């Protein structure tokens, strides 16, 4: 049996016409901004600075590069090779924030070197908050480099620090 519609199909409502007092029903599109240029791997602090932080992290091939150091805050870029870790460490006086830009890994934290009670997978766009005095480590468990940035408050590394490899950082005691 074929059923017939009792009501004919209604046409879509017409697009709303702008009110005479508001000639533009939609806000104007934001102006086009050209992409940020290639990031120079140097410390730009303590001067005002704007950067596409994800692009800077993707361009960084060093184990650690300080990108900005001020009197109360520092931003470093890091790249961990597959299987590499930051190294179990604690910063007694620095809170730390990490953002994983690319890659996958494991974050471990705890009250002591032998008591890492927190273990969580991390991946693109994972934010990791590390309170001062907390032992921590990040390990790249992926097959590609893990790229991240780290914010320390107050600064932890010497202004302008660049470590091409983890071995260099360890040799310098950093």
Structure description:
The chain has 174 residues and is mainly beta. Helices cover 7% and strands 31% of the residues. It has two helices and nine strands; from the N terminus they run H-E-E-E-E-E-E-E-E-E-H. The protein has helices spanning 53-59, 166-171; strands at 64-69, 74-80, 95-102, 104-110, 118-123, 127-130, 135-140, 146-153, 162-163. The chain has a six-stranded antiparallel β-sheet with strand order 6-3-8-2-1-9. The longest helix has 7 residues, at 53-59. The N and C termini lie far apart (81 Å).
Helices, strands, pairings?
Elements: H1 53-59, E1 64-69, E2 74-80, E3 95-102, E4 104-110, E5 118-123, E6 127-130, E7 135-140, E8 146-153, E9 162-163, H2 166-171
Antiparallel strand pairs: 1-2, 1-9, 2-8, 3-6, 3-8, 4-5, 4-7
Gyration radius over CA: 25 Å
Question: Which regions contain 5 or more consecutive residues with pLDDT less than 50?
Answer: none
N- and C-termini, Cα separation: 81 Å
- Find the count of extended strands (DSSP E, 2+ residues): 9
Q: Order of strands across the biggest sheet?
A: 6-3-8-2-1-9
Secondary-structure element series: HEEEEEEEEEH
Mean pLDDT: 88
- Main beta sheet: strand number and arrangement? 6 strands, antiparallel
Helix content: under 10%
β-strand percent reads: 25-35%
Structure class: mainly beta
Output the number of helix runs: 2
């Amino acid at each position: 049996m074929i059923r017939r519609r009792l009501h004919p199909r209604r046409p879509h409502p017409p697009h709303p016409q702008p009110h005479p007092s508001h000639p533009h029903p939609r806000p104007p599109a934001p102006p086009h901004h050209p992409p940020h240029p290639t990031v120079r791997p140097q410390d730009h602090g303590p001067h005002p600075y704007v950067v596409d932080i994800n692009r800077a992290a993707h361009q960084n091939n060093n184990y650690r590069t300080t990108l900005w150091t001020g009197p109360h805050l520092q931003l470093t870029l890091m790249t961990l090779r597959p299987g590499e870790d930051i190294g179990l460490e604690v910063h007694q006086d620095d809170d730390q924030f990490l953002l994983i830009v690319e890659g996958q890994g494991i974050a471990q934290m705890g009250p002591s070197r032998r008591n890492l009670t927190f273990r969580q997978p991390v991946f693109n766009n994972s934010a990791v908050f590390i309170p001062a005095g907390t032992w921590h480590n990040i390990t790249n468990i992926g097959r590609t480099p893990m790229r991240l940035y780290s914010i320390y408050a107050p600064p932890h590394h010497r202004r302008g620090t660049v470590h091409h490899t983890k071995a260099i950082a360890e040799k310098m005691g950093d």
